Amino acid sequence: MQPPVSAYSLRRADAVLEATLDVLAEVGFARLTVDMIATRAHASKATIYRRWATKTELVRAAAALVEVETIPAAVGSDTAEALRAVLESLRSMTVGRLGRLVTALTTAAVDDPDIRATVHEELVMPLHRATAAALDELRDAGVIDAHADTALAAQALIALTIDRAVATGTAATPAELEALLAAWVLPVLAPAATGRRTKGPTAGPG
């Protein structure tokens, strides 16, 4: 039987993980060192290595602490306003901790399957679930098309906001979000609101 973990040990572990997230967002995975983390957390390297054997293991544990904010489902608003709120939430995440961490880990994820799994499981999938949940609520409330494939739409919206920021280094501007809303989001997810139906992530009846 393992001895109980003290409250102090848990606080120290949390401090190390928070320091990992902060330094990672600042310098990226390639330049991140345990020395940097130890300095930021006011901890010894020995303390860190006793709990996490590798830098990758430490980063994965830290990424698991990241909480994805709830995406608002403005069911009382009109269709354009409700979908605009979803896009604005995704845009705000691109300039927040989540977006900075995805950017910091993207290059390493290309060649490192463990980092790739960390990005997918701890960052991207929670964001996808939150986005799809908001779209589900809008669909159930009749705000968007009853046959909209919300899972696929969530993937597309993330690609058009988070992935765009990773690729370009900048978040979409309000004007760009408005253009995206008019040209793609509304025609695909709420064709009745635009008077036309556009092929996209919708599922057939049944």
Compact description:
By secondary structure, the chain is mostly helical. It is about 70% helix and about 0% strand.
Overview of the molecule:
This protein is an all-alpha fold and 206 residues long. It folds into two domains: 7-63, Arc Repressor Mutant, subunit A (Orthogonal Bundle), CATH 1.10.10; 79-194, Tetracycline Repressor, domain 2. Helices cover 69% and strands 0% of the residues. α6 (97-111) packs across α7 and α6 (97-111) crosses α8. Residues 1-5, 196-200 and 202-206 have low confidence and may be disordered.
- Given helix and strand content, the structural type is mainly alpha
What is the residue-mean pLDDT, rounded to a whole number? 88
Strand fraction band? under 5%
Number of strands: 0
Radius of gyration: 20 Å
Q: Give the CATH topology of the largest domain.
A: Tetracycline Repressor, domain 2
What kind of sheet is the major sheet?
none
Contiguous runs where pLDDT drops below 50 for at least 5 residues:
1-5, 196-200, 202-206
**What's the helix-strand series?**
HHHHHHHHHH
Overall outline: elongated
CATH class of the largest domain: Mainly Alpha
